[in-house]
Amino acid sequence: MEEPEPVFNYTLDNSKLSREQREFYEKNGFLVIKQLIDESFLDKCKQRFLDLCEKKVPWGSLTMMKDISLSKKGAVGEHLYYKVQDFVYDSVLFEYCRHPTILDYIECFTGPDIMAIHTMLINKPPDSGSLTSRHPLHQDLHYFPFRPANRIVCAWTAMEDITPENGCLVVLPGSHKGELLQHDYPEWENGVNKMYHGVRGFDDHPIMELSMTKGDTVFFHPILIHGSGPNRTQGFRKAISCHYSCAEMEFIDIQGTSQENIAKEIEEVTKRRGLELNFQDFWKFRSRLVRGQQAVKWFSSL
């Protein structure tokens, strides 16, 4: 008797992924591809980040984020900025989003029409002793007002060797099969960086640490519960990532849902920066087509 064909809910028919890789992602909600990105390309991205930290190039619409504990201690440059977001309009960093090797894999999750929706270069600094360099367990879908979740995926690439000592990603395998949970700021003694919301009640759950070498890339589902520990080394832990979605996403009304708190916070931040954007238009503003055809409705209200 022949074994029945597996049902794939989280990946699409595409020759890029083997059956074993698809089955792994279906079961666990993530997939690591070793040595996917060339080191010289990552070094170019690193230099761009350093130039931004030193203000050698204009920031434009980039968001440069400071670590709350380090800013109080007078840190500057690379030691102060733990993240740059919204680099879809940066000529150097945007090349990561458009990297053909990455996009070939992304098609397996989104289909051929692909939007880059959320971009980050994370610079986890040596922890100051306050543990603010850690990131609480969370689900990325908490931040996104569009669906379906199964057509969203993150590509996250190690820009150097990443270990438990310098704060590697930790994941709860299989948690992508659950639902979007309530997120709040964790009640940590020394505070938490801006918008680092997290889920509660999972501290005792078994987690998997994703040690990665430079160039390794992990693809993961937006409902997968994940986070990262503090950087207990004297060096930096850099990674670059982009969330992608299919171009035919449907925006949802988040009123009355668990996403209201992050929507309000984002709208307040954008207002302080001189932008009057609601939660949906905020995401339209920071998204950009990277392959295929753009859906007209995605930008219909801007």
From TrEMBL:
It is an enzyme of class 1 (oxidoreductase). It comes from the Eukaryota. Its EC number is 1.14.11.18. Signal peptide: none annotated. PANTHER family: PHYTANOYL-COA ALPHA-HYDROXYLASE, PHYTANOYL-COA DIOXYGENASE, PEROXISOMAL. Belongs to the PhyH family. This is phytanoyl-CoA dioxygenase.
